[in-house]
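User: Predict the full complex structure for these chains.
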Amino acid sequence: MKVSRRDLLVWSAGAAAGLMVTPVPWKVLDDVSIWSQNWPWIPQPARGPVDVKQSACTLCPKGCGLRVRVAGGFLVGVAGVASHPVTRGALCPLAFGAHQLNWHPQRLRTVLHRRSVSTRNAAQMAFTKACSEGPVVVIDGYPGRAASQVLESFAKNRRGEYRVVLSAETRALAPYERWTGVPAALLGYDVENAGTIVSFGAPLLDGWGAPGHFARLWAERAAGTEDPQLRLIQVEPTLSRTASRAWQWVPVRNGSEAVLAAGIAGVLLEEHLVSARGPKPTLSLTAAGEQTGLGIDAIRGLARTIVARPPVVAIANDDSPEVAALNVVLGAVGARGGIVRRSRENKSYLAADTPISSARAVVIDSSVPWDFAPKTDAEVFRFAAWDGGSGSADWLLPAPGFLEEATDVPAAPELAVQSFALAPALTKAQHEVRSAALFLSGIDSALPTAEEIIHARCQQIFQSRVGMLCSREQTPVSRFAASQKLEEQLWAGAVWVGEPVGPPNLRCELKEWPTPSTSTRGEGWSSSWTAPVLPPLASKLVEESGLRQRAEGRLA
Amino acid sequence: MSARYGMVIDLDRCTGCGSCMVACAAENNVPALPQATTRTGLTPMLVRRVSNERDGAERREVFIPILCMHCERETPCVSVCPQQAVEVDKATGIVMQMPQRCLGCRYCMTACAYHARYFNWRDPAWPAGMEKSLNPAVAVRMRGVVEKCNFCHGRLHAAKEKAAAASKREIDPADYVPACVEACPTGAIRFGNLADTGDPVSHEARSPYAFRLLARLGTEPKVYYKSKEAWVRQLAESVSGRETEASREMKHV
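Assistant: Here is the predicted structure of the two-chain assembly.
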């Protein structure tokens, strides 16, 4: 049979049409689709036995308890620790994506000298030379750690200065330091025993203090009741996340929070609603009503509401003498449910934001917020795990990232009692990293190591016989037979919690009403962790939901 | 005994922190989409901010976490799926999505009254090396399929395995807690067996303050919300009713 060209075409068309009614093309399509999703460049999770370890978050100075899943030596998940005495299983949203930060594209992997690739030896030589030419200033963002002690010792040995960038919570306590002499870093808020909290712009439900600490307390004592045990009054120009959940929101004019504090104090003193007999604010109630936009009656009503459920404490978002003075009028300083001293130590810090005059070199620890830039002509050596891209440091040196370095975790800045935890290194950095403390130890061999300091701190806690060690069970320190056992449990994730400092722990009298200052500062991103980068999954909070606005200069 | 897993979300406790969203994405290996918008994002758990439309001191806002409602009756996504890629698990009541069967027609997205379904347009991508931080218990998301909340099904499997290893038929409720529930810092999201009258979540679902979104559709969602504020409860039925600001916002859910 002769096959013509036409027959061939007809047969081909028929075969093609027939094939379409069989499962073959669909099966091929399906298989190709599945096959193409198993190409080598499709990411696959790490394999290996999964371990669950307890640790503490080291992203910011809040030290929340972490339960970390580790697979094949890599961090694969983060959750809270329900038995943690402070955070009780709660974390900030950033912590849930923190295990991805070590792989962030902006991870600093090499030493940079004025944005050009350099070496650690070159940085060390430059630093040694600068040290020989003049004093050194060391700046720390997370004081109280063993590494901080190394940094401070180095500065002292070189006749330099050790300075600290304090958190917003600690800065808000600065007026009490000026008035009582007790360092702000040793003060805290006894929010557990407060009946009314008046927040002047402080993001109490949005990253203030250890994030879970106040959120849990609010959920237990304030949420969803018309007459809660804890009244949260939020003074803020905009309906923030905290304001929207507060028992009462007081919408004042932008920048008039301090004026309102003075107005409330004036009413309290004038109507004898408090026992204090201090100096009255110079600002009249009429002026306060006008400047805040609330009116006289509203301020009077607010003052009466505030004192209706004692103890009362006012919390500012930053250094605000007027809000601090209101606390003095309310009798909240040194009182139950107010501002308390959490330690009898007397260690104060030099603030980092004062101009640096005579230094030849400035060392900035990786714990210092990325947006901090020292005003100096000295050569700046900045340690950082992530490169925020617009830093002004001469040298950028790669530092350990999230849980890549063992460290100790002192109490969160707002706590009323001391606490101490240890965060073991749960993963290894994929490139050479060195913390500022280790770098300085390499230059000055006389410095104590962080391990020795941690060991000594554990022994100190053991010898004090004070407080409880909290893991799944709470064990008084006095029951431990050896310091080594206590330290082992701390490395396994337990947290030591001290006891409140007994009264009288703080006394404060107001000699004159503070001069009017500008308003308490607000921040775009209410968590006070000002890191150079955010975990990539922060996109769920920002772009993908619109729930938050990304603060300028912070990249994900 | 078959379970009916469900949630009660106490809106009076929700601070809108977004921990549930990030924990959900981390648990289920959902990639970050920094260029996405609220329309094109991939958020099996999405927290919406809704107001009472008042001004000044009377203005109130509430945060509503939106996820798959796991409808029990005449589940719209199940009935429209041509591939039987969606089904209501008889043993758990969970609306299951099987990506291997899904052909990506997106009928289910159209059918879902809550807009709780998302389409994976691209292969999942992370910055170099970041795949090592993914959850090994869950596969990466497939391209070309529809995604939604499955009450962290990987955790249910793990709980079942643990129970089987201990020669038990029933799982310990403490072993099966979805990531969002675990992450909520105020305990606003609670998870449990609605069929068990002794379960606290089942009890809360019967509270006079409990409500379900679009309950009038009759699909029996297994995600309940709870609020003591009347205007919040009214939101449930205003989704396609009055043209209010709140309802307009809810329409985008």
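Chain B has a mean pLDDT of 89.
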